[in-house]
């Protein structure tokens, strides 16, 4: 059940690079990451690839396969035709380090900009009481394995490097939503989302939800509800009028 | 540090351009039809069976056929080429244009921002919905209220039409308001207002239940957006064909 | 020679899994300038793979639970070989450590009255595992990661620098510990990205590097698990204990080949999944060992009743400790009653409604769907044993996590003693938290009490650099991948789940040859993100640790927990009193016996005499 598969893998670093052709053995039941490993072991020992758990749980092996952002370990070879040439490239949105490895520090910077969980001050450990229905929304977002494929595919930063400063990306807007919906969080996250994390840049074209390997409904359950909360506060003409009339700030 | 040097705009090998193209053509055809019917100013009322097309409901100006104006003719006759629907269409259109699903659809299909996932967009600058005019998308909620009101009127029209008996037109009007109601209820704003805005569902069991039900509908928001839109056009077409005498209504009772 | 990057910290934590991060938080909260060094990206550590939950006797679901019961279960699971003091501290402190996670923002599944829900698990008498569906490890890692971020935000407010007192160096490998005389003085390593070398000067180092599974062919462990901490400790002069005890998780995926070994959580069985052989028989009823006969159901009816009424029924044998289940599966497959791909069937599809399976076991559903194209709500899974966890590790002081080398600490899987000869499911995550925190505090106290900081000599640095660069200096040597595959095959076949004297002797001979060949490895390319080079350096650690495992396994002539001898099939109470200690000196690896510290009498009183008779010698009982 083996065959010789055709692959084109991007190789290079920040000084340049390009697609290189390889022919590699493919066996039944394998995923793209297996092929990359076989390439390392047999033809390109210094081919750089980032990976870890190989079970879709750690979110390390993010790349683009035939132009689509995917986890290398969760893309089965059986979805491709045997005669097809499979192109494997690094994530486009982040600076390249080498071959398939990119510098994802943008995401760690953005993570630090989200103010942390703020529980009530008088609540001692062990006294937390939360109902299952109240934690479920945030639990969905906490399924995130931080593969950063959503950050990579989002056109706001993918196509516009200059927006990286103002826009935290779907992953971290979802983190804001997670805290906003946390039943014991006391901080106000609505203005933050809009002013500090660039929620307004999102035009809900849903590519983040499309690429999420955990199938989190990022747009419907995190981003839109945050936009609605912002609308509650900032774009409610009635509230706005009231503020104008009574000169509240 | 630079990004990987890849010249191609996308390396996708599937037909990624097909969905936006289909969306674009679909929206274009529907717009053309709706514009034509709006400015036609005729064939919106079947007097014999009391069918009123949803595109002309409520009919509020002097030029309306009196029997079709279920709520009276509040406004004087409109000048020039304007017809009665121009009063209500801004609200209906506003609801659909600011809808979270349609935004995705036309941002992708009509503005190519982005045309498809992982396909570079052609624009050199992008500010999203952070400034005028797109910041007005945040008004979706208010269009939702307006559209809900118009929906109630459509339901009233559909029920009223049963006064003369039952025909295929009645069934069509009924299905139409059913689909419109499902689309309206499945709206993200509706989901937010019903319960989504709450921090503690457990303290509001009824609103949590509503949120759960609306969430299920919301999963099908795209499907409902298209079916209700197409069906409104079909309903209007049916009324127009009957009103113009092109076809006769299929009657079940009377 | 490019200039060496240098950093100075109070405490270095090597490893960013549960234990490492908890240790770093504690050290930082004790005011220490702390650095975390990890091979992967921050937040990707192997802890994310833990599925079932965190064992802690909070008594939220069954109020009869207490630390004493948890202690008892842990000792039983480890066949009484555990370091009793560690088991005691662990059982006592686990609830606080779990509650603490909530204050960091963790969101566990809840009970009806809003407390943390707890689930059943193999070897635990009461429902005890705090969990989030079947992704508890991810929750743990993310929560600790976010706590670290919150501490960094505090520093940013105070100093204008996020990394003032707590810094994470990710994708960084430590190749050697550096000493000043008998004391730890820091660590030497390289950035995986650039290959550039870095020297960290620090008086205290906490090892939290996890396990050694990558020395075996079929394993649930990720590439990081190359026994780095075990080897660093050995080379620094610390000793390892219990290295013969390796847990083979009974249920790993067996197909497709590329994911062979990846874990299928025990919760599948805890939630009603049953094991069947190719005849459709629930074979576990044939494998209940004598010591467990009164705790486990001997017929399917009673076993099934237990899921709804735990007070009046004994639990089904699918929930026996992991070593028992792994051996049973091994025997069934050997007897020709296995599944098509060489495992047995684990079926939950006929036991729970599809909706319920998706709700309770979402990641398992996802994993099988995506990786094996199997729908577990409709079909049984094929599973078999996989190398999962090493009970052995650095010998530490239970209270502080200190090794025998001044300034060197260890916590989590890399430390030894806590789990005895076999670890219970769920006790790993709690171990990370309890002893991660203790090691962080222990290291902080040590640093605070120092009156003079150790210094690093330039010679040590030169030597460490030369060792790391050796694979580039040679030509015509072997490819590290080949050597790694041979090592994995040997360990799997010869020092695996069932062991025999002759096979282990052969394993040791092969290891000797591999060691020789490893001297002349050749790596192509340059230092920048070069996986071949990384493997060549990791291989040195794997070979060292494998030798400890094989030598200790050969010496222990009994079967106990994660050490099963075909030629010595029964447990021997005399052996319970002995630990095997592994050390390295100029003559190489040596393993010696050491007497076990007797269990404190008030802790012994927690058990029935009849039970103790199964484990302890007559002399100990009198």
UniProtKB/TrEMBL annotation, chain A:
Residues 5-92 form the 2Fe-2S ferredoxin-type domain. CDD domains: fer2. It comes from Lentzea rhizosphaerae. Pfam families: Fer2_3, Fer4_8. Transmembrane segments: none annotated. It comes from the Bacteria. Keywords: 2Fe-2S, 4Fe-4S, Iron, Iron-sulfur, Metal-binding, Oxidoreductase. InterPro entries: 2Fe-2S_ferredoxin-like_sf (IPR036010), 2Fe-2S_ferredoxin-type (IPR001041), 2Fe2S_fd_BS (IPR006058), 4Fe4S_Fe-S-bd (IPR017896), Beta-grasp_dom_sf (IPR012675), Helical_ferredxn (IPR009051), SDH/FRD_Iron-Sulfur (IPR050573), Succ_DH/fum_Rdtase_Fe-S (IPR004489). Its cofactor is [3Fe-4S] cluster; [2Fe-2S] cluster; [4Fe-4S] cluster. Pathway: Carbohydrate metabolism; tricarboxylic acid cycle. Belongs to the succinate dehydrogenase/fumarate reductase iron-sulfur protein family. This is Succinate dehydrogenase/fumarate reductase iron-sulfur subunit.
